[in-house]
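It is worth pausing here to work through a concrete case rather than discussing structure prediction in the abstract. The textbook approach is simple: state the sequence, then state the predicted structure, then interpret. We follow exactly that order.
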Amino acid sequence: MESTISKLSLVTSSGDDAAPIGAAKARLDAAVKEFEESYSALLAPKGKSSPIPNITLQQIASSYEVTAANNDVSQRGDNFGRAVEQLLLASVGEEPLPSTELRKKAKAAKDSFSKCVSKVGDFIGKLLPLAIFACGVTATVGDASIVALPLKTIANGTALVLQLCQKEKDRGEEFILELDRISYQSRRVFEIQKQPRESLNPLLLEKSLDLMAEIINFLAASMQFMKHGFFMKVAKSLVLGPEIWQKSMKALHLAYEEYDQALLLQIARTISEQQTQHREASLELKDDAFFGWLSPSVWEVEAQVLANRSQRAEGTLGWVLKLEEFRKWRVGNLENSKSTPAQTLWLNGLPGTGKSTISAYIYDLLLHQYPDATILHFFCKSGTPGLTTAHNIVRTLCYQLTQKDSFYQRYLQKKENLPSPGRLENLILLFNTLIKDPISKGPQESDVFILLDGLDELEDTSSQAGQPSYASKTEIEALLEELVQIPKAKILITSRSSPELKKILDQAGTTRAISWRDNTEDIKRYVKARVDKSPKMTSRFQQIGKDPVEFFERANGIFLWAALVLDMLERTVSSNAFALALEQVPPTMSDVYDQILERTVRSGNYAWIKEILGWTLILPSPFAIQQMKTAVDLSLNDEVYDMEDLLRSECGSLLDLVPVLGSNQDFEIHIGHETFQAYLMNPTNSHGDLFNSNIAHGKAALACLRYLIAEKPVKDEKFKLYAITRWRWHLRASMGLKERGFADPLAALEGGSPLPSDVAQEIVVTLYQFLRSSKVDPWLEHYFCEKYYWEKQLFNEVYHTCIELSAWHRVNKHHLEDGKAFEKHGINTLSLLAWCEGLPGLQCVADRLWPRACHVWLHNTWKVWRVVYHGYERLVELDIWINHPDVLVPNNEATGLLKEEAKIVEANEKNRMGSKSSGKLYGNLSLRYANFYLILQKELGSRGHLKAILTAGDNDEMSGVCQANISVALNFLAGRAGATDKEQARSQAMANILDALDEDPDGNPRYYEHLGHLYTRDDKEDEALAAWKRGISLDPDNETCLREEFYQLKVYKLTRDDYGCTTPDYDAAIAVLKEAIREDPGNANSRWFHQMATMYKKKGDFEGARRTYRANFHFDPSWNSHWEDLAETYIDKEVFEETRQFNWRGYCDALAEAAVLDPSRAHSHLHCWVSKATKVKEYQYFELAVEMLEYGIETTSQMKTKAATETRARFEFALGETFCAMAKWESAVSSLEDSFRHRQKSPPSYEYSNLGDAYMCCGRYEEALAVFNKKIEKDASSASGNAAVGEIYLLTGAPSKAIKPYKTAIRSQESWAVERMRAHSHWPTAFDKYVRDWYIDLGMAYERLSRQEQALACFQKALPHAEGQVSKMLVRHGEELAFEDEYLHRSEGRNWMTLGWLYERLDPSDKRAEDAYERAVWIFKTTVHAEDDFLDEIECVEADEALARVKRGEPWVFPGEVDRGLRERAKARNYRTNWGVNLKRRKRVTKQSMMRGH
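Step two, the predicted structure:
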């Protein structure tokens, strides 16, 4: 056979490269030839019952030419794969066979073969990029025969072996997994194909050829391993099959590793060439409160990546890629990690060895090499806010997770009551909620890499919490213990070594210390490059006759030391200075920093540098250069001409200037290195006055206040906003107090350290000037307009200002009593001292802010009507808190409220499992706040507060602005007043707004917005529409909500009876909504499209609703959540309520279409399908649920996407659960096994219970035992897993073996129940139904061992748990039973049955048993869901029989064996909804509702 491989058009290489590539070509040629010879032997015999595929070289070459010519590169693989499928099917056409039996067998074999073809086509399509790359074919057609021969060989071989896989299940699964690995490796070369071939590393070409050869060898070995009788003509014997298989598998895995390493080296070269492009990278932050909460450190982390990326010198860090530890971590055997925790690599080293630069380099490599992977990263930095706590890490990693896949966004947005920072238990809960759970439930097909740099620099914010259960752990220990348990995650940590890290990471994975030898060559390369680029240094080293590379060998692996010393040498101004600097080169990092700062002293810039460093260390997020200039100018009352020049000339070695993401013109200022941070924080350094946190915060507060009181402040909008929002924060921090957390008590303000007298006096004078003038107005206005203006933003700002200034005065009081110290400021000293004396009582500050707040609200021309409306409510709150005569009067109601709140604060302190409760006072345990809260409930609608506001705000009755704002307040009052006052308020409000319009009819469109609201209160919709229409004409830029109000009212008038509509006109409403979409596009996605679809649905035009949703997708493709609404149009709710039927196939097809057209959310769309079927199952319409799920399995098995592959496993799992609920255990086993087999990652531990239950109920106890042991292996603390093991031993007649696992389960569950009780105030006891059941089973085990006393003791221990479960008591009215609560669920009956059985076992004469059974019978008969349901019927019969037996006085008889049927039925019920009734309405209820959406 003539070799086609010999024609490979590989890149021309020099002698050293050509020989290895030629050898690789020969190996591929030999592999193809050997396979073809073996395969030809299979084609000779005729009449076989299994078809043998035989695509010819010409066929596959022709198909490749057609595909390459007619398809885009990105689609070529899929289309070529489909072409191969057709060729395979055609290659096994029908042959005339002599007998009917042979024909039947051949037909069955061909049907089976057809099922394999889809997998082959998918595999070949994904292999195509590797084949093209290895064979040197260009991105167009090229010589098709070059690539066709290996692809022909692989296609025929794969199709044949896949047939054998159907007969050899275990071997087949392993083969299919290997095909998936080959597909993954092949796809990774796709991006490399885009590079010019002359730029490719020859090693990558060689290893790609080797990988192709080993794939073919693997297929040949697979045939040998799985062959049957008709393959016996293959040369090697059956006995050698397993040995050949293992040898080929090992060779294939080695080829993976070598190919992977070559690919990594190619990517490393690419990164070096593209490094500067990363500077322009930017993040898209979502304008969402939750994602805003998640992302406080995102920008800081990315800035660290940029800074550390820029530190890498060209050509360095190649040694990292060659580390054996790194290679094993990156390409470790993924199949082995399915049942193991994360793969962890810890690189540790001394400060300055380049650990952070290594992390940034590896991060870049992973981004390029694993584009489909989830790569999370965090760079810690001591002293940089946002980069110093474990909570920062968790929240930022979670944010990055949401940016990788939209599934995580939707999954996390559903989470509520997230725990607050400050507790280790909360940290663990937060980690599990935001990281571990989403990863385990999200897309399973991609790898997960987590890179954490500088963990040794984290602060431990939990140190003050004082929790006994975690007293010996730091936050980082708690976080790491959880982190290393994420299955299949690969975690890389770089840091200095520390005992707490070593304790965990040494056991969790691989540790590698970075030594001076690792960095030596890189330092030499770096020094040489720096010196070569500097003519000055080159000539001076030559003048003194020293080799710079040799001189810097003393760096001892400390990269930073070498860089800083080179900086110092480059700044020398003469030859003698250069020589002297070399002689006096500082030996340590501290000495280096001393010399750098001494230079700033000599240059006269030390004060500037000190101030810059102080600001940089305390900022919550880094300043840009202009912000820093404004801040430092204000701090020093001076002006620097060129801040950037100062930073680069004096601080270039100390600070990093990192480009602001998305800009090449502006730079953020960061501390250069952790060692410099440590130097600054060390009070024993040679510049001991360099940094003091309290003083730095005090000076920052002073600078902010100076900006706010300046007559002509520098125009710097960023610093202006910073000054407004942060002056109070800096003032609080100047006392050494941390920010008060959510619902923390006021005791958080106790303690504190005073400032130096001069700083404290400057601050109090500036505060006095600020608070007594109109300069407070911009600050107050900001909090009126805060984004969430309906919350208490303004009130909280004023309130906290008062109490924190009181605390600040207490701490600094002794500095504020000397009147002479204030004389130099040119203000009235007596007035200032009197004001200071009033600070402790809060009133003096409140009295100053109250009139200014009223004035701002009253005289401002607000653009947003709602700001005025809610702003009035905030002023009423301030009026009560500041001015109400009863706010400081003790009373019983306030005292009772404070006692209740004190209990909540105490519970918050003890709460170690959940979030804090705010209570009513948010931890503000003061008489004044309690009275404020109580008075507010009664007086919010009082007219007296409006009068007080107008007086304080200096109302101008001739001002239209004032009258318009007053009109809004009157409208507010009209909604809360009695009938008489309401009419008066409306009338006055109307008069006021008309006065405002008389003054300015063509001015503020907000006046017309308010006028329309007044008309709607009087049910004058037409007048309101006219007013809003006029306002719209004055608002061309759509700055108000007028269009939203206008079109919404028009729709309501046409469709709602509460707006006077007797017969809805849906067609007219649809026309209005179409106009709204054109005129108000900003609300089109969130409002108008959905409302239009709703109108179509209400008129019964479901197809019209679907067209509307599709138009929405066309209008804005990103608004793809409406795909699920489109699917809901196939559910007619009225028909469903009557028949429990709906067009489920149309619903499912819509979601399938969504998954294809919207692949980024395919996982979510398909999950909705699963969820809907699950809800149908919960309604106990099991047959319908089975149809939906089986259709889902069929549909996803035909899709070629990752999301479909994973969702197929979810469909199979849900189908298994449905069969469990139907007690069809064999079917359940089959579906659950399929689900486990198709999972890309190991299932969560709770899913093992389902499969274990199914095995148990089928009597397959050994398999059930293996499954539950696997569950325990994954979660050693699993109480349910141990209990299930005990139950298996009980069922199989081994009660002695059951005792230990039951005891283990009980101990674990009792401990958890106690923790639950402590953590949740609404859970008053530690009684637990699982503990009850397991004590009963343990007692049964003792009974079967004839240990009756121990059995009765277990039943006695179960009794209080059983009684504790009967919390909703039935009460007796004469001879009848009734339920004291509104809702009654079926599980209550089971609780009573268990309790009756325990009463009977402990004392056969106990009359309480009869009463308990009677209650159970009543509940079962009351809560029947389906009259003909066999489980419900049996439950009622069993309760009746127990009651009758007790009434007859017959004792319970000990059975000879465990009642397996009873246990099977109990397990089936666990998979069903806990149905119940609403006793008042006699209506079935459940917590789930199918028609509520998703």
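Step three, interpretation. The radius of gyration is 38 Å. The longest strand covers residues 343-349.
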